[in-house]
Each structure stands twice: as C-alpha cells, then as structure tokens.
Amino acid sequence: MVVPSLKLQDLIQEIRRAKTQAQEREVIQKECAHIRATFRDGDPLHRHRQLTKLLFVHVLGYPAHFGQMECLKLIASPRFIDKRVGYLGAMLLLDERHDAHLLITNSIKNDLSQGTQPVQGLALCTLSTMGSAEMCRDLAPEVEKLLLHPSPYVRKKAVLTAVHMIRKVPELSSIFLPSCAQLLHERHHGTLLGTVTLITELCEGSPAALRHFQKVVPQLVQILRTLVTTGYSTEHSISGVSNPFLQVRILRLLRILGRNHEESSEAMNDLLAQVATNTDTSRNAGSAVLFETVLTIMDIRSAAGLRVLAVNILGRFLLNSDKNIRYVALTSLLRLVQSDHSAVQRHRPTVVECLWETDASLSRRALELSLALVNGSNVRAMTQELQAFLESCSPDLRADCASGILLAAERFAPTKRWHIDTILHVLTTAGTHVRDDAVANLTQLIGGAQELHAYSVRRLYSALAEDISQQPLVQVAAWCIGEYGDLLLEGNCEDIEPLQVEEEEVLALLEKVLQSHMSLPATRGYALTALMKLSTRFHGDNKASPCPASARCGVGHMPLPLTAHRLSRIRQVVSIYGSCLDVELQQRAVEYDTLFRKYDHMRAAILEKMPLMERGDYQVDEEAKQSKAAAQLSEAAPVPTEPQASKLLDLLDLLDSPSGDAQHPPPLDPAPGGTLVHLLDLPCAPPAPAPIPDLKVFEREGLQLNLSFTRPPGSPALLLITVTTTNFSEGDVTHFICQAAVPKSFQLQLQAPSGDTALARGGLPITQLFRILSPNKAPLRLKLRLTYTHFGQSVQEIFEVNNLPVETWQ
Q1: Is 424:464 a contact under the CB 8 Å cutoff?
Q2: What pLDDT is attached to residue 791?
Q3: Which region ranges are annotated with the description Disordered (predicted)?
Q4: Total number of domains constituting the chain
Q5: How far is the C-alpha of 446 from the C-alpha of 613, rounded, in Å?
Q6: What is Dmax (Cα atoms) for the chain?
C-alpha cells in the first residue's frame, strides 16, 4: 500500500511529534522519497508544493540538492506561484560553487525585461542574493534600466541589486553613475536609503566616483537638514527621531566625501553643528545619529569649535547608563586623544571613574584611555589613581596597568626619586605582572642616581623584608643590596626614618631568598651575587677607618675586612650551590668558590661597585658608532698608489713561488679603492658577498616593518632575516605578533621577538629573527600575518611579500 504524500503543515507536525532524532530522520527520509518520486513523474501542478516541503527540509539541515533542477523549471514557468517558490529555492539551494546557477541567467533576464512588478522584484532579490560575477556582467544593463522604473518598489530593489553588483564587479561602477544623481531627488525613503548606500560603495571603490559625487554634497546636506527639521512622522520616526537609518547612512557618506576636501567640509559644518545640538539622546536611535555625527566631525576638516563639541558629546556619553554607549564613547575618545588631547583632558575625571566599572571590557578601555591621557602636567595625579586601581583590578588587567604605569613614569617622571618610588610601588603591588625589562630599567635608574643610592637601598631592603614573593622586586633589591650594602648599615639617610640594620640580618634575609621555594633561578643568581659582593662591602665593627690614601683616591674611609665567621658563612652558602641542578647557578657558584680559594687577593677588586650605566637606544647607538667608525676609516686610510701596490704584489708572490721568477699579475684597475680590493683577493679567499639591501614590506598609520638580510659564512643555504618593527605614530602598539609562512620547499624557524610593544614616536623597536633554510635555491616568497592593538583597536593584516631581493634565494 502506497502511503500518500504529506502536506507541508502535516509534515511540520510529524517532525515536531518525533521524540528522537532517529524518528525525525525516518519521517524526513520517507517524505524525501515521495518528493523524488513526484519529481520523476513530472507533475507540473504540484511541483511547487513538493519543492516547498523540500526547502523546509533544507532549513532543518538535511540534504536537498536534488531539488536544484526543479528550481530552474519553476522559474521558467509562466505561473507566479511557481516563480515565487522557484526563486526562493534558487536563493537557498544555489550559489556560485554550482554551475547550475548560470542556467537561470536567461530566465532572470526575461523576467527583468518583460515581467510584472512582483516578478521583477523576485528576480532582483535572487540576483542580489546569489548573483555571481558572470551573472552581474550579463544582467547589469537590465538592472541599470530598472533604476529609473516608475514604481518605487522596483527602484528600491534595483538599487540594492546594483550595490551587490558593484561589490562583486567593481568595474561596473561607471554604468550606475548617471542614475545615482537622479535618484537623489527620490522622495521614497527606502529608495533614497538604497541610493545613499550605492553612492557610498561607488565612492569607496573609485576615486573618480568620489570626485564626481563631491559635487552633490549640498544636495545631501539639504536632504539631511530636511530630516532633522521634520516633525514627527508615523511612517518614518523611531523613538522620536526621523528615520535614523537614513540619517546615519547620509552622515557616513558625508564623512567619505568630506575627508581631505576643504570645500565639502565647509559645506557641511553648519549642518553637523545643527544635528549635534538638536538630536535627542534619551533613546538609542538618537545616540546612534549623534555618534555618527561625532565620527563625521572628526574625519573631515571641521572647525576647531566643532571638534570640541564632538568631544563634549562623547563626554556626555560617558555618563549614560547604557554600558554599550559608554564603551563606544571610550573607544572614540581613545582614537581622538592624540589629535585633540586638550579637549579630551577635560573629561579625565569621568574616564578615571570608569576604571572601577564591573564590566571587564569597559574597565580595559578606560585603562587604555587613562594611560593615553597621562602627560607631564598630570603625571603625579594620574599615577596615583592608576596605582590605586592596580591594587584592586582583576588579574587580566594587572599586567597592562603595571606596564602602562612604568612607561608613563619613564616618559614623564618629574624627579628621579619620584620615578624610583613609583616603580617600587608597582613592583610591590604587582611585581609578577610587570614587563621583562622592568628590572633592568630600575637598576639603570638607581645606578645613575648617585645621590639616591642610600635612599633606594633602604627602601628596597624594607620592601624585601616584608615580602619575598614578588620576583622582580626581589631581584632589584638583591642587586641594590649587593652594590650599596655599606650604605645600608650607615643609617644616616635623612630622606626616610632611621633604619638600624645589622650585618647578620642582611645575610639572613639573602639566605632566606636563596632557600625560598618561590625564588626563580634568576632570583637566586641575584642573591648569590649579592652575598659575594657583601663579602667586600661589610666590615666587622660597623665602623669605618680612615683611608691612608684618601687624598689620592678621593674616598674618606674604607671598610675593614669582614669577620672570619661571617666570611666563612658566605663561603659555605656559595659552596652549597656548586652542585645545584640549574647550570647557570652552578657555574656562578663554582666561579665564586674558586675566587675565594685561589684568587682571594683579587676579590675586592673584582667585586667593586658597578660603573654608572648610560641609558639609551642600543640599536641607534650601535648604528651611530658604526657610521662614525666607517667615516674615520675612510678619512684616515689613504689610497695607495699603483707602484706601491705593485711592490706589495711582488712581495706576496715570493711566498707562493719557489723559484725566483715571479709572475706579475695583470694591471690593476686604477680606480680609487680598486687596488685594495685586489690586494684582499690575493690569498685566493672567496670574495665577500655583496650586502643584501633592506626591504620595507609594510606601513600603516605610522607602523613600519622592515626586513634586513644576512647569510652566515659557510652556510650558503641559510638565510637570516631580521624583522624590525618601528612605530612612528603617536600611540603605542601593543600585543604585537608577527607570524610567517614560506613555500614547502623551504624550512622556516621563528625566533622569539624582543617584545610585544612598539613605543610611540620612533621608540624602541621590536626585532625578531627568521631562520630560513633553502636547499633547492628556489624563489623565496613570504606570507606574513600581523596582529596588534593600536589606538585601542585590534588590527590584523595578512599580506604576501613577493619582491624579495634575488640574493635572498640564489
């Protein structure tokens, strides 16, 4: 007995009554079998019903590809009910990956040219949904004609189809340019919204179109002014705002047209001020229009007063109860802080209040903006607020907050003592979350501030005595105690309260650090070195005897030798770590023990205080030294004359010729410098490879990526690429990651980068080494992916480098 086919409503009920997935699958398989049988029988009257059920099955996620050809048959049918289901099926079941979609091109063309308005609307919707590049090229003339159709229903759908065509085939832009100017006179808001979207796509893709539509800026201004001044309209008003969707679209188009164009910007200044002052922000619709107005003001060449008004609007957004609006305001202010710093500074108290938001994303944005607002005049107040936030913030934000405070203190510190106090507070509060270079920076700072040595060592000793869990703090304290331990015992620092410290206490504290399970191997190395240095810093009676050579050495006293008991205590601790599992720590302990046993007479000289360390950009300093040395060499080295070179050549020939008959080489090139080149070639050494020129592969918003190439001697198949990332913008680039890929015939090894933060204004760059092995000497291609955060926005760039110098792979 043949079970009759179900109706659509009955099929939906059967599927909903299924209690398990197996029952549902059984119902659908039976119905799909009936649908296939109906398609084979070729029933034209009920084909659309079967396809409707098949589309429902497709929506549920089951295969329905066998209905693709039925869609084509229904589209070709003269009945509207068939066309409606056929076009719906084409939009759901067909796409560019199937060649079958090209078969409906002729049917769509006929419907666009000769069909009724509903049929034309169906054809336009299908074309805008799944139209491929080939279909767009074939059907563009028909769509261009429908842009000026008498019916606004058809015009609206034709405009949206034209937007899809331009996105698929940008070279079709010239076809739609003439019609857009006429469509701007449209009164139907739906068609006008589509027209503004179409013009936006044209301007973004073609500079010629941008210049063409800059002439219609007054007309766009008039349309927007009409929307703003129009009263309440039941058809178009949303929350008291007249068609906010159209207003937002026009503002975006004005932003594109006014960017870097003085005349267009001047034409829209008054309108933007009117929108900014008359828009109600009590509802989301008004806030959306106002936010788009702010973005337009900031992107065009607007007046200074208008920009201040835009910043004040964002400041009002910060007081809004909606978290999304506050987040948008913080993000926008972060983008504006470099160009309008003084205007954003007025809202600093409100920004600081946002630090304590319970929402993590809001708190992070407020932190980034607060760090960007720090300058020389407010560094003390802002640092105090950020330090208070650091004590209570979540662990996810602690690393960014600590790094930001350290960078701000380094750039804007009013005094060295304040700088030291700030870093010590950060290390005490969140020492495990600071950047890797925090220890080196603080040791450099303390070493360069000679007048603060006593103050620093006392502060660090007190902090270390209270807490030894913060490893960077322990490392700096151990270094400082080792260097200036004699100042720690004097107790005559006027800057802090008197601190009486005994030698036994200091030694016990360092031993406690060495024995603590929380201490890292590097921390134990600092503590072990500090103990060694204290063997020459401390003296037995805590008093200093006059130095007999004070007139010559400039020192008024010198420490007496450490007592034998304490010296043996230090030697015992050092010898224990001679069998440590950590190789670095073991080597250091063995060397120190050898210093005690064999070279004790030299110990005081070897363990003298470190000289002052000069701070600066290492790479820049090295380049300056190299260029200076090259200049001196070129000036000091005279070019030898040809007779002298000939004598040298004859003399060198005697070393290789056993007989007295020396063969003279061919005449040398008389050009300057050529003689030296031939001299270097005489011992038959291979000529030095020519340097491979550097290559700049990326630049965006002040961020540059340069590649420099070297090939190690003796390894012709190995290429070393140094990737240098430099930031010349006004804001730091953080969370920077550079990833690379090469063809399969190469072997690539990525070394760890020097950091993940490129400081602003040409600060310390990020360097990373690529090791590429090319055994086949094939042409080299690189594919790079950059991810970073700049001005509070996450950026990802993927690009391919195909113009590498030939020397990199030959």
Answers
A1: no
A2: 82
A3: 621-640
A4: 2
A5: 10
A6: 124
